[in-house]
Amino acid sequence: MDSNEHSSTRLGGWLGSLPRRVDVYEVGPRDGLQNELRTLPTRDKARLIEALVAAGEQRIEVTSFVSPKWIPQLSDAEEVLRLVGRKPGVTFSALVPNLKGLVRAREAGLEEAAVFISASEAHSKKNINKTIAEALEASREVATAATQAGMRVRGYLSTVWGCPYEGHVPVERVVDICRQLVDMGIYQLSLGDTIGVGTPRQTEEILSALMKHIPVEKLALHLHDTRGTALANALVGLSAGVTTFDASIGGLGGCPYAPGAAGNLATEDAVFMFHGMGVETGINLDKLVEAGELAQELIGRKLAGKYLQAALGEREKRASRRAKTT
Fold first, then answer.
1. pTM of the entire predicted model
2. 8 A C-beta contact, residue 233 and residue 198
3. 236-248 residue pLDDT tens
4. Among 74, 139, 236, 303, which lies 20 to 30 A Cα-Cα from 37?
C-alpha cells in the first residue's frame, strides 16, 4: 500500500486528505477470546475465524503461543491453526512471548509473530513479570530468531496513553521503546490505549512525537473503548496517515491486568466509519455483521459493537413488520 496515496475526500476541509485504503488488523480471536470467561471449543474458534475471512478480513491474529497456564483459553493454538489451514491472501499471526513459543508458532506454519511490551514498569511486571528492559531483551531474541526463519514480526506496545497503576506515561519513554523495537527489525508497531483513557489531542501529541523518528507506515493503533473515545482517536490517526487499525469483532477484548478496561474498538464500527468517509478496507460490512452475530452466539452474550447491535436491531424490526403483514 502506498501511504502517500490520498483520496480527495474532505469533510469541510477539516480533516485534510485521507488514505485511500486502510488495513484492519483483526484481534478478536486472540485478544478478544482470551478475556472471555467462557473457553470456546476449538471448532467454534475456527468457525469464527472462517467467518472473519469470509467477510474479507486479510490480517487476523488467531491465537497465542503464551504458556497455557497463563492463558488457558488459548491452549489449543496448534489445533486452531490446523483446522483453519492456509487461506490465500490471508495472513494469520499469533502472540509469541519467547523462543519456546516461537518454535511452536513456526511448527504450526505461521508466517508472522507478534511480541508485546508495556510502556509502564508496573504494568509490565503485572502483565508478564518482567521489567521493560527484560521484556525488550526477550522481544529482541524472538525478533532475531523469527526474522532469520523468514517470519515477519509485529510489536505491541501497551499502556501508551496511560497505565492503570502508574497513571500518566511519558511520551518520551514511548518514543524510546518504539525506536528500540524498530531497531530489532519489527515491521509494524501497534500502539495500545490499553485502558481506554486516550483523547484525540493526546493521540495527536503521541503520533507527532513518534513520527519525528519513525515513518507513519510502521505505526498502527490498538484502541480500547472504555470511555467511548476509540473511534475519535482512530479518526485522528487516520488524518495523520496511519493506515493500520487493530479492531475486534463486536468489540470483544480487554486486558486482565488492566482493571476496568473495556473491549477493543469494534471492527464493524471502524469499517462503517472508514467506508462512510470513502476509505476502502476490502471488508464486506454485511458479512462482518454475520461474523459478529456468530461471535455473540458462541460466547453467549450480547457484544458492545454499536454498528453490530444497530444492524441486528434493524433486522429484527424488518422481520417483525413482515410477520405483521402475513
1. 0.92
2. yes
3. 999 999 999 999 9
4. 139
At 14-49, the pLDDT tens digits run 777 899 999 999 999 999 998 887 889 999 999 999
From 72, 62, 70, select the one nearest 29 (Cα to Cα).
62
Strands (E), the chain: 6-7, 18-19, 23-26, 59-64, 91-95, 112-118, 152-158, 188-193, 219-223, 244-247
Catalytic residue among 18, 255, 279, 299: 255
Mean pLDDT of 222-235: 95
- Say how far apart CA 210 and CA 64 lie, in whole Å: 28
**Residue keyed to cell 502483565:** 127
State the cell numbers at 125. Answer: 511486571
Separation between Cα atoms, residue 254 and residue 274, nearest integer Å: 23
Q: How far is CA 60 from CA 56, 84, 294, in A?
A: 11, 12, 17
Please tell me the distance from the alpha carbon of residue 227 to that of residue 224, in angstroms, as a whole number.
8
286, 211, 206: which is closest to 223 by C-alpha? Answer: 206
- Distances from the Cα of 305 to the Cα of 111, 188, 270, 302, angstroms: 30, 26, 10, 9
The Cβ of residue 137 has, within 10 Å, a number of other Cβ atoms equal to 11
- Is residue 255 annotated as a catalytic residue, yes or no? yes
Give the length of the chain: 326
**Chain Cα centroid distance, residue 318:** 33
Q: Cβ distance 58 to 21 under 8 Å?
A: no
Amino acid 19 reads P
What does residue 20 show for φ and ψ, rounded to 5 degrees?
A: -70, -30
Query: What contacts 234, CB < 8 A, 6 or more positions away?
Result: 221, 223, 245, 265, 270, 273
| Distance of alpha carbon 96 from alpha carbon 87, whole angstroms | 21
d(CA 139, CA 114): 9
31 DSSP 8-state letter? I
